[in-house]
From TrEMBL:
<dbReference type="InterPro" id="IPR006103">
    <property type="entry name" value="Glyco_hydro_2_cat"/>
</dbReference>
<keyword id="KW-0326">Glycosidase</keyword>
<feature type="domain" description="Glycosyl hydrolases family 2 sugar binding">
    <location>
        <begin position="113"/>
        <end position="182"/>
    </location>
</feature>
<dbReference type="InterPro" id="IPR017853">
    <property type="entry name" value="GH"/>
</dbReference>
<dbReference type="Pfam" id="PF02837">
    <property type="entry name" value="Glyco_hydro_2_N"/>
</dbReference>
<keyword id="KW-0732">Signal</keyword>
<dbReference type="InterPro" id="IPR006104">
    <property type="entry name" value="Glyco_hydro_2_N"/>
</dbReference>
<dbReference type="Pfam" id="PF00703">
    <property type="entry name" value="Glyco_hydro_2"/>
</dbReference>
<feature type="region of interest" description="Disordered">
    <location>
        <begin position="772"/>
        <end position="795"/>
    </location>
</feature>
<dbReference type="InterPro" id="IPR013783">
    <property type="entry name" value="Ig-like_fold"/>
</dbReference>
<dbReference type="Pfam" id="PF02836">
    <property type="entry name" value="Glyco_hydro_2_C"/>
</dbReference>
<feature type="signal peptide">
    <location>
        <begin position="1"/>
        <end position="24"/>
    </location>
</feature>
<dbReference type="InterPro" id="IPR051913">
    <property type="entry name" value="GH2_Domain-Containing"/>
</dbReference>
<keyword id="KW-0378">Hydrolase</keyword>
<comment type="similarity">
    <text>Belongs to the glycosyl hydrolase 2 family.</text>
</comment>
<protein>
    <submittedName>
        <fullName>Beta-galactosidase</fullName>
        <ecNumber>3.2.1.23</ecNumber>
    </submittedName>
</protein>
<dbReference type="InterPro" id="IPR036156">
    <property type="entry name" value="Beta-gal/glucu_dom_sf"/>
</dbReference>
Length: 795
């Protein structure tokens, strides 16, 4: 990508920014060589004020008053990694935007053999008798830091916060010099790097290098609180707190922790640093997506002086009282339970990428917007996909009420396919992975919104699977561990996770493991003027307009709801926004266009949080390979009469075959009668005897491609495109009224143009248990999960 150097002073200058983006686009290439990067900006990116870049306090789980934000314009240089500090820093960069991003003002590609250098002056302020800490929210990947020419520390890792005590390196007066050097092999190395790639395209995206979260100074006492560990225990009505402290005289210090009950009564506990302290919260108000209530915490560190203790350090924090577990329901199906109650966890896959800031959101408001919009769509969950966010993102999830499945950014020496055994990786690669995974768990364990750790995704860098999963469970036994998400499952983990595009489907449930759909959907729609690439945009299934997209989305959600009867406990839809060439977001990449009306989506999605339906087969399909398959009359030449679908039509000259009809190479098909021409016409007489089963009928159909379904000569459903497996399709109210007890004539016309082909049809009755029933999940299970697709798609 062409190097850029530009400046944005204050608000405005949008035209200048667009010009720089266009300059970057004109010299860029993607892996395919067929598409140019488009100049995409979010509203927040257009309004970026370089004098106040991400000014919010960056660590809301442990707040102090005395701090200085170092975000903004720094000097910048790009040089070979073997060279020393450059003599001149001739360019400017806006911290904390990654070097490759437009908002950084650099937008340059960084190769593994490069080093990026940052430099700035700063004023530490008055700090007599205190320590000055330099904090980095995250830097990708290897970092060295000098203050006034003195090396103060180094750090390896792309996603965790770190800090250095720089007090001894400060001079008595005058501005101080800060220099930072970063190297990053991106996907040329085996370290965790997530979706970053030096060859972006398809499901991998533009690389990210350097400082990408807030840099800040903090003045702290000599004896001070270093970290907090906050663990809610809902069953006992307590919060477990471990306050780690450092500095002189720790043997004479005490920790005081205070909060207030919901009614305002003070609640306190006192103890020693490093001890496990239990703060009782009687009748605690529990945290949930519907009621994200947080207890504010005041934490003091006091030093004994005679008969009194003087407070030397104070931090503010918070806790959400919530529990999560996998528990069998009355039918023995494993369910995710939040605070002891079944909770269907449903939300989008969230990549956390921005067209202007890449890994870094252009503002705190932008971070919050993604979460708020996710809730408006009717989701209660989001899966943060192979990326870690700044602490404020999780803070907003805590405040707004959004459950989080947190992925470990993938890396490793190689990936594995669905049926491959775990590979052996080098001790060095394993050590890096474990160190960064443990750092992620430690840094994020405070947040009540996080309920699931996802160590592996689809075999990407997967190794020692069960050992790693068990190790993570040991690090944090209060949360669920996915095992792993999609593909090469080894029988361990709280979740049995399947990926299916577009889906939906699940694995047959297992005892003690909740059956979840870790990825599905991927419905794509190109929105002109809001795409990253000129061409080669894609989705797992593409649509021409928003109406067809919404129709298909609703159909997926209807089928998802029906899968609850088979034990489906959670699902993750791909995805929140478009990302670079992927156009399968609910929202465009620039966050300017909502592709589906969130009010309508919320109505469809909210159905998932109610009781599971009871499904009864009214007319069986041929999906079970052990069955004979129903007999149909069929013709592969167009009938001479236009009334071929009528009840009294004479089809005695047609052939007789058993369902399903098609070619064996069609995904999800059980073929008993081969059909390889362009069209097929089918007829069958059926008898329906139970009037209660006719109140809410659905088609259970696998069609490849377009199909028309008739009942007694009347068209009851037109289906376009194709399915990859059996799908339950709702009927209109008018079509449902046509069904009655007695004999009926069913007729189908299916046409095929390319690829595999298949047609088979059945009927399913859907009955809903009362929403307030104590046994909301009881009822007979269908074989729908067995009917769904076996294929997985790489993400």
């Amino acid at each position: 990508m062409t190097s850029l150097s530009f400046r944005i002073v204050g608000l405005g200058l949008v035209a200048a920014l667009h010009a720089c983006v266009a300059e970057a686009a004109s010299g860029s290439e993607v892996a395919s060589g067929e598409a140019a990067v488009r100049p995409l900006l979010t509203t927040w990116g257009e309004q970026l004020d370089r004098s106040a870049v991400l000014p919010e306090y960056p660590r809301p789980q442990m707040v102090r008053d005395s701090w200085t934000n170092l975000n903004g314009e720094w000097d910048f240089a790009l040089a070979p990694s073997g060279d020393g500090e450059p003599e001149a820093f001739e360019r400017k960069i806006v911290v904390p935007f990654p070097v490759e991003s437009v908002l950084s003002g650099v937008a340059s590609e960084v190769r593994p053999e490069d080093a990026v250098w940052y430099r700035r002056k700063f004023d530490p302020g008055k700090h007599d008798g205190q320590r000055v800490l330099l904090h980095f929210g995250a830097v990708d990947w290897q970092t060295k830091v000098w203050v006034n020419g003195i090396e103060v520390g180094e750090h390896t890792g792309g996603y965790d916060p770190f800090s250095f005590d720089i007090t001894k390196a400060l001079t008595a007066k005058g501005p101080q010099s800060l220099v930072v050097r970063v190297t990053d092999p991106t996907n040329r190395g085996s370290q965790p790097h997530g979706k970053q790639s030096l060859e972006p395209g398809g499901i991998v995206y533009t690389a990210v290098t350097g400082i990408w979260q807030t840099v800040w100074l903090e003045t702290v006492p000599q004896t001070r609180i270093r970290s907090l560990r906050v663990t809610p225990h809902v069953d006992s009505g307590e919060v477990e707190l471990v306050v780690d402290a450092e500095g002189p005289g720790l043997d004479k210090t005490v920790v005081r922790i205070a909060t207030k009950s919901e009614g305002g009564a003070p609640l306190r506990v006192t103890g020693k640093p490093g001890e496990s302290l239990r703060l009782a919260i009687p009748n605690a108000r529990l945290w949930s997506p519907d009621d994200p209530y947080l207890y504010e915490l005041d934490i003091d560190l006091a030093v004994e002086s005679g008969k009194v203790h003087n407070v030397v350090d104070h931090v503010g924090s918070y806790v959400g009282m919530r529990s999560v577990a996998v528990v069998p329901d009355e039918r023995g199906q494993s369910r995710i339970c939040l605070n002891g109650k079944e909770c269907f966890s449903f939300g989008p896959l969230d990549q956390g990428y921005w067209p202007d800031g890449l890994y870094t959101a252009p503002s705190d408001e932008a971070l919050k917007w993604d979460i708020t919009m996710t809730k408006k769509f009717g989701f209660n969950t989001c899966r943060k996909h192979v990326k870690v966010e700044p602490a404020r993102w999780y803070y907003w999830c805590d405040r707004i009420g959004l459950l989080v499945w947190q992925d470990m950014p993938c890396g490793g020496e190689r990936g594995i396919g669905p049926s491959e055994a775990d590979p052996t990786c080098s001790p060095e690669s394993e050590a890096v992975f474990r160190a960064e995974l443990e750092a992620m768990v430690d840094a994020l364990s405070h947040h009540p919104s996080i309920i699931v750790w996802v160590p592996f995704n689809e075999g990407w860098g997967q190794f020692k699977t069960n050992e790693i999963l068990a190790w993570v469970k040991g690090l944090d036994p209060t949360r669920l561990v996915d095992g792993p998400s999609g593909w090469a499952d080894r029988g361990y983990g709280d979740l049995l996770d399947r990926h299916d595009y577009p889906g939906p489907s699940i694995h047959p449930p297992e005892e003690g493991r909740a059956a979840v759909l870790g990825e599905f959907g991927g419905l794509g729609l190109v929105t002109p003027d809001h795409v990253w690439l000129d061409v080669t945009n894609w989705g797992y299934q593409s649509f021409d307009n928003e109406k067809e997209l919404a129709k298909s989305y609703k159909s997926l959600i209807d089928n998802l709801w029906l899968l609850k009867s088979d034990g489906l406990a959670a699902a993750i839809y791909t995805q929140t926004t478009d990302v670079e060439g992927e156009v399968n977001g609910l929202v465009t990449y620039d966050r300017r266009v909502l592709k589906i009306d969130p009010n309508k989506a919320a109505i469809w999605n909210n159905r998932l949080y109610g009781p599971a339906p009871k499904l009864t087969t009214v007319l069986a399909t041929s999906q079970d390979p052990s069955s004979m398959g129903a007999e149909w009359s069929y013709s592969t030449t167009q009938p001479a009469a236009d009334d071929w679908m009528a009840s009294d039509y004479d089809d005695s000259a047609w052939q007789i075959g058993r369902a399903g009809f098609g070619t064996p190479n069609t995904p999800g098909a059980t073929v008993r009668t081969e059909w390889d021409t362009s069209d097929i016409w089918l007829r069958r007489t059926v008898r329906l005897d139970d009037p209660q089963l006719l109140e809410d009928l659905y088609l259970l159909i696998h069609h490849d491609e377009d199909a028309e379904v008739y009942l007694d000569g009347k068209l009851i459903k037109t289906l376009s495109g194709f399915t990859l497996d059996y799908t339950i399709v709702p009927l209109s109210a008018g079509a449902k009224k046509l069904f009655r007890t007695g004999e009926h004539s069913l007729a189908i016309h299916c046409r095929q143009t390319d690829g595999g082909q298949f047609i088979d049809l059945g009927l399913v009755a859907v009955q809903t248990e009362p929403a307030d029933a104590a046994t909301a999940e009881k009822g007979s299970s269908s074989n729908l999960s067995k009917a769904k697709g076996r294929g997985s798609v790489r993400r």
